[in-house]
Design goal:
It is a single chain. By secondary structure, the chain is α+β, with helices and mostly antiparallel strands. The protein has 2 domains: 111 residues, Transcription Regulator spoIIAA (2-Layer Sandwich), CATH 3.30.750.24; 279 residues, no CATH class. The chain contains 9 helices and 23 strands. Strands 6, 7, 15, 16, 17, 18, 19, 20, 21, 22 and 23 form an 11-stranded antiparallel sheet that branches. Strands 8, 9, 10, 11, 12, 13 and 14 form a 7-stranded antiparallel sheet that branches. A hairpin with a 2-residue loop joins β6 and β7. The longest helix has 16 residues.
């Protein structure tokens, strides 16, 4: 028999375990740990004082949890194991992989190293809890790429392609592809997102898969081919983390709150979050002249829409990590017609994002850029889509670049 209770102490979550951990009970411990990770708990302690035996099946549970948590900068700490249980961890060599402590004083000391570096402030806006790290940063720049004018009638050709080097676009979205010749890459245009100069796109073809190019300091000459889009560059003025225990939060609610954190008129947003109902759309066909609708109607016309647009009827990607970027404006009437043109009708935000595999992620705001890099270089991207404002999230982090208009 096994008993596993969840409690809070010293500012972290505890699993209070009593009984024998073996092949018949380890699944219960595993389920408790998985549920905590799904809630976003990355650092936890397991009190083993009441455990009388641990078999290899039990050891595997803790090692598995440690591997998952370490990827996101977390940890499971084992506390007060009896001498016979501690002996099993030592004999297996797991005491060199897992942190094992014997007193609360040791735990308090070790937890002090996990406290965020630098000053941050907490703020609750519309029942959303934000942790805010403010930084010194000048305003960034926004660049419009190409034009969306020919999208509605699928009228693009080779002369409409804009080549953008990776070193010229830090973050961005649009309809784009990878390749060296138009004959080749014209068959692979699709929804695209650029995150820290790395490129991801989802070709608008039957049976698509995410294509990508990871950029580092040595290959900033990589070339990305855009039919249209926008990019922005600059340093983060604010980095925020958010969560809400009461409800899931829509992208539109998050965006509205960001304008209470920043007083800028237009924001470049870099986003990482855990989806609780993702609403994303993408093109099914490439809008070049050879694919123009035979009925000459717009691709968004009711008669053509379902053949051209993958539009969700239900939310998807529950518990997946979402990483993306876009812009938001405080008042559409206050920005230029050119900027208004890249915003969807009735919305003040335009964002593209990648749906990545389900993994825990590190929500410490001082680690935001490292965590973004880990996701885009280490996790599998499932699809890239235009994000609809009603998409829901439980928690996440956002880097804000205040843009010059």
């Amino acid at each position: 028999m096994i008993e596993c209770r969840i409690t809070e102490k010293f500012g972290i979550t505890w699993l209070m375990v009593n009984g024998r951990i073996d092949s018949m009970t380890s699944n219960e411990i595993q389920a408790s740990i998985d549920a905590l990770i799904d809630r976003g708990v990355l650092t936890m302690a397991a009190d083993l004082e009441g455990v009388n035996y641990v078999s290899s099946a039990g050891l595997r549970v803790f090692i598995s949890a440690q591997k998952r948590l370490k990827k996101a900068g977390g940890e499971i700490i084992l506390c007060r194991p009896p001498e016979n249980v501690l002996k099993i961890f030592k004999m297996s060599g797991f005491d060199s992989i897992l942190r094992i402590i014997s007193t609360d004083m040791e735990l308090e000391s070790s937890l002090s190293a996990l406290k965020p570096a630098g000053a941050s402030a907490s703020k609750t806006i519309n029942d959303i809890k934000f942790e805010i790290l403010q930084k010194e940063a000048d305003k960034g720049t926004l660049t419009i790429i190409g034009s969306q004018d020919r999208l509605s009638h699928a009228g693009y050709d080779e002369g409409d392609v804009t080549t953008v080097r990776a070193g010229q676009i830090q973050y961005g979205t649009g309809l784009a592809a990878l390749g060296d010749s138009y004959e080749d890459y014209s068959n692979y245009f699709g929804e695209a997102v650029v995150l820290n100069k790395s490129f991801f796109n989802y070709p608008a073809v039957k049976g698509p898969a995410v294509d990508y190019m990871i950029c580092n300091d040595e290959n900033t000459g990589l070339e990305y081919r855009f039919l249209y889009g926008f990019g922005f560059s600059g340093h983060f003025k604010h980095i925020v983390s958010f969560d809400s225990a009461e409800k899931f939060i829509s992208l539109s609610e998050i965006t509205e709150a960001l304008f209470e954190i920043s007083d800028a008129s237009i924001l470049g947003i870099v986003f990482v979050g855990e989806s609780k109902g993702f609403w994303g759309m993408n093109l099914k066909k490439i809008p070049v002249k050879k694919n123009s609708p035979e009925n000459t109607l717009e691709i968004f016309d009711q008669k053509n829409f379902s053949n051209w647009i993958n539009f969700p009827m239900d939310p998807a990607a529950i518990n997946n990590l979402i990483a993306g970027c876009g812009i938001a404006v405080r008042d559409k009437n206050s920005v230029s017609t050119e900027i208004q043109g890249i915003l969807s009708q009735g919305n003040n935000i335009h964002m593209h994002a990648g749906v990545f595999e389900k993994e825990p992620f590190n929500r410490r705001i001082e680690n935001f850029e490292d965590e973004l890099a880990r996701i885009i270089t280490g996790l599998e991207a499932i699809r890239i889509q235009h994000v609809l404002p009603k998409s829901l999230f439980s928690q996440g982090m956002i880097g804000i670049v205040e843009l010059d208009i």
